[in-house]
């Protein structure tokens, strides 16, 4: 039986084992998928040990995505851009290939739910690793414009600079946010602390979508704020399931149906 896992620290909270078990059952793939807490000082050693025990691939979550990026022998183009890896694949020659599926997961979740990205005015909040990981797939949908806003303005400007060859993208502080926007994506970790970035009242265009990469049993403060201002709201649970589906596809060559798995997870939250 082929072995896969998710590496994190901590990792007990990870929903990936539930998701991949559901995918495996649905597609008839015989895989074993577990959660492994890698030591903070030796992620590479944990991956090597897993491979020695028959591991064929892995997902990587906080705080190892950059370390996973560094240990790969070859990388997908989107992982090179993201400078992070959430999917490790053991090649036939024993080499480690790295990919990042977070961005395609986000785009697929939006598109599957009828959110038009081509020609849209997009605002992304935050300029950390989570945001860097989604910019290339977002720009590939050919939005009219994409503005990255961050508490630390220079970080957003520098991040945007790395992607200017891919489309109309710029970055700055929250005070530089000038709406209206069709799609607003919160990629800050502010939701974790129950914080809301300072945003103008007229942020949303008519029919706009607000998306939070975080998810939970209750809507985040950002989504509550957005709902009060008339935006259509989605949380990051769909992105979580879609990034997993793309990893599963990379490993097994089969695309699971994500809708029932999303429902399964949603029920497990409440
Ligand atoms: P991640 O991997 O989740 O992206 P990160 O790289 O540490 O984590 O980035 C966290 C992001 O959330 C950053 O954009 C951070 O803003 P700064 O660059 O100014 O630090 C943002 N962030 C975290 N807490 C926040 C808060 N309370 N209000 C606004 N932005 C916040």
Describe what you observe in this structure:
The protein starts with a strand and ends with a helix. It has helices spanning 16-27, 43-52, 65-71, 77-82, 102-112, 129-140, 153-161, 221-228, 237-252, 259-269, and strands at 2-8, 31-37, 55-60, 74-75, 87-90, 96-99, 121-125, 145-149, 169-172, 181-186, 204-212, 232-235. The chain folds into two domains: 2-100, Leucine Dehydrogenase, chain A, domain 1 (Rossmann fold); 103-236, Rossmann fold (3-Layer(aba) Sandwich), CATH 3.40.50.720. By secondary structure, the chain is an alpha/beta fold. It is globular. The chain is built from ten helices and twelve strands. The mean pLDDT is 97. The chain binds 2'-monophosphoadenosine-5'-diphosphate. 2'-monophosphoadenosine-5'-diphosphate (ATR) is lined by residues 126-131, 150-152, 155, 188-190, 193, 195, 197.
């Amino acid at each position: 039986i082929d072995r896969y896992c998710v590496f994190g620290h901590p990792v007990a909270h990870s929903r990936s084992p539930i998701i991949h078990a559901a995918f495996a059952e649905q597609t008839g793939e015989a895989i074993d998928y577990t959660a492994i807490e890698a030591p903070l000082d030796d992620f590479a050693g944990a991956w090597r040990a897993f491979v020695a025990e028959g591991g064929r691939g892995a997902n990587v979550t906080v705080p190892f995505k950059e370390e996973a990026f560094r240990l790969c022998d070859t990388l997908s183009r989107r992982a090179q851009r993201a400078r992070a890896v959430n999917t490790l694949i053991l090649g036939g020659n024993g080499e480690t290939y790295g990919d990042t599926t977070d961005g395609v997961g986000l785009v697929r979740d939006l598109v599957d739910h009828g959110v038009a990205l081509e020609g849209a005015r997009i605002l992304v909040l935050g300029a950390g690793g989570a945001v860097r990981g989604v910019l290339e797939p977002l720009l590939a949908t050919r939005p009219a414009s994409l503005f990255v806003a961050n508490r630390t303005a220079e970080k957003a400007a520098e991040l945007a600079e790395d992607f200017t060859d891919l489309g109309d993208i710029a970055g700055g502080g929250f005070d530089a946010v000038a709406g209206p926007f069709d799609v607003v994506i919160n990629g800050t970790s502010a939701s974790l602390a129950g914080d809301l970035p300072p945003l103008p009242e007229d942020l949303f265009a008519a029919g706009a979508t607000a998306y939070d990469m975080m998810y939970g049993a209750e809507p985040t403060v950002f989504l509550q704020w957005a709902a009060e201002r008339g935006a259509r709201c989605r949380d990051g649970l769909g992105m979580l399931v879609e990034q997993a589906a793309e990893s599963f596809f990379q490993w097994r060559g089969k695309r699971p149906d994500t809708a029932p798995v999303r429902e399964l997870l949603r029920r497990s939250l409440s």
